[in-house]
Amino acid sequence: MTEVNKNDSKEDYEFIKEKIKEKPLNKRKLLMKIVQSVITGAVFGFFACLAFLLCKPFLEDLLFGRTTEEVVIPGDEEETAQDEVTEDSQTSDTSQ
Known about the structure:
This protein has helices at residues 2-9, 27-64, 81-95. It is mostly helical. The protein has 3 helices and no strands. The protein is rod-shaped. The longest helix is centred in the middle third of the chain and has 38 residues, at 27-64.
């Protein structure tokens, strides 16, 4: 028993001291995660844009309705041969 007391009376020391070290920063894995996030965001944005472009006509009809007005542009009336002759003679008279 004296031996046990001697061990207890000695300095209390730990047999194993653990020190938890932080893992070092792996720059390659960090870069790959950033690249993956950027690519995933770009793909998501592309498909969101595509979905909005495809749905736009249907949503406009649903929200605003179609109120298209027909625009009529009057065509040029054909001039008769006599009118052309008189215009030609008038322009030749004024140029002389």
